[in-house]
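Revision sheet: structure tokens.
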Amino acid sequence: MAKVPGFAKAFAGRWRIVEMDVWDWDNDFLDLVEEAHLTFKGSADGEIGLGALKGFLDVRYGTRDGSACAEFSWEGHDENDPACGRGWVVFGTAGRLVGHFYIHNADDSRFVCERA
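Predicted:
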């Protein structure tokens, strides 16, 4: 297994998804099943939940344009149908995470998270 950079610890924990370009029209939708979140656990694991989507992450830490970055692929389900995709986050202003989330062969959206 690849060595995890020390800065990966800064991503650890649960982050509340507070803004999305595509699905932000209704926060009730984002929190449909559970509070919309992105969670980083251990050195390479995590999960994402939003709307009726639940996914489990495979995370790699590195840099993007000189900033600490967490890139991930995910697989899970969306409305009980199998789903997968990818995404990434970097640290933005005010301690927030900003990034992009992709559903394979479907929608994608920019998103913002705050530490829960």
